[in-house]
Amino acid sequence: MANSHCHECVLRGDKEVNADATRWKRLRQSLLCPPGVKLGRACTFLLVFPLVWIAGYGLTGHEMLLDGNLFKIYIIFFACLLGGWLMEIIRLPGLLGMIIVGMIFGNLKHQISWMEHPIQHGWSGKIRGVALVVILIRAGLGLNPEQLRRLSLMVARLAFVPSTVEAIIVACVSNLILGLRWAWAFTLGFALAAVSPAIVVPYMLKIQENGYGVDKGIPTLLLAASSLNDVFSIWAFLVFLGITFSQRSFVMQTIMPFVEVLLGFLYGIVIGIILWFIPNRKDNFALAEIRSILLLIGGIASYFGSISIKMHSAGALGALTLAFVASYGWRRQGYKQDNPVSLNFNFLWFIFQPLLFGLVGAELDFLKIKLTTVRYGLIVIFIGLLFRCCGAFVVLSGGNLNVKEKLFVAFSWLPKATVQAAVGSNALDAALALTDPNPQHIEWGQDILTIAVMAILVSAPIGATFIRSVSTNSPVNASDTSIAIPE
């Protein structure tokens, strides 16, 4: 009897706390077993944190000690998760907390002896490369062929025109005030040209669930265009990055981007079609998991294989095409919006997101940043954003959107984060990887990384705050599904 009473004291049971219960009663209820959702997440974090270290030490030994690369990655990962959670508490994108934590850890080498030797560049670069592959595959899986056909013209205009306008303006301004050569200037331009799906997609899904703008296809338009925009910006960035460091003749530099596009498409189409049939769709043994593993391996092989043969842009395009073609076949076989492969990659992104933003933040050395780069970088960023918004507003003219809805789309096109974190340090990595590094190229690579991180810190909170204000201020009314812009 006493034992039963003890169980009742610690077990939650089926009874829920009333809506008007006091804070003490709510706290008391959340401490019972099983714990509440938020407390349960905290307990999970506290449980996993030591278990991962013990497992890592058992597998690698010294790599999980203070001076080991794996230990530093382990600390950055969990610290970034915590930083992202704290940032979300104050209703800002979690990725801001992750990148700030990374910046702090990256500069601890000037203060703490065990961080004197930072994470080896090869480790950091490979992890960021895999994160980029995950981004590309998620973008490919998220493209809906039917939606693309229905909104093809407007999606194409919104995906390509504002980014191209921004890249050209950023290239011109950075050439003028930062002194970057034209190839470097366009590399920076397209590094900044991508919108952040990590910010846009969740809010668009929420707006779509509430029915805002659905009758005019606004959430669908932004979801489809954001994926294409990212791929286009990454491809153009890699093309200009290749031109920047290429030793080929002018003719070969002109032809090779088209050759790389062709090879990327061919790789993605061939491997994607193979994944329609292998494994057999009637195989009940972990079908979605095996498809996810094959897709990830195919994307990694495309991206890193293309780097090894000096065809950087072919790999990114191949990974995206592979995911899109495979997803197209799986849709015809029965996968719909609840694609289990997409859900698996959402979980992968949960792992790689803190690593990506933490490691790119760690690349930023405060002692190497010049104040002129910060000052002129902010000018470059804001001028680019201004022309980007204007370009997005103009390309929507002639459609069925009213002025407020065009403004909503234009401002939703502001936030930058994911792609900038994934490619921001590539130019610096390429400059450092040369047999005889050019100090000027290293300086320009550092400038591009600095401006890419600044673009995240500036645009992500502005864009997220705006989109959130719209989603919370729009009236929930089945008869009024237009977008309501706060006055």
TrEMBL record:
Recorded GO MF terms: antiporter activity
Listed transmembrane segments: 39-61, 73-105, 125-143, 155-177, 183-205, 217-243, 255-278, 285-305, 311-330, 342-362, 374-396, 448-467
Record-linked Pfam families: Na_H_Exchanger
Keywords from the named record: Membrane, Transmembrane, Transmembrane helix
Domain Cation/H+ exchanger transmembrane: 80-466
Topology in membrane: Multi-pass membrane protein
GO terms classed as biological process: proton transmembrane transport
Subcellular location: Membrane
Recorded family membership: Belongs to the monovalent cation:proton antiporter 1 (CPA1) transporter (TC 2.A.36) family.
Protein's UniProt name: Cation/H+ exchanger transmembrane domain-containing protein
Organism: Darwinula stevensoni
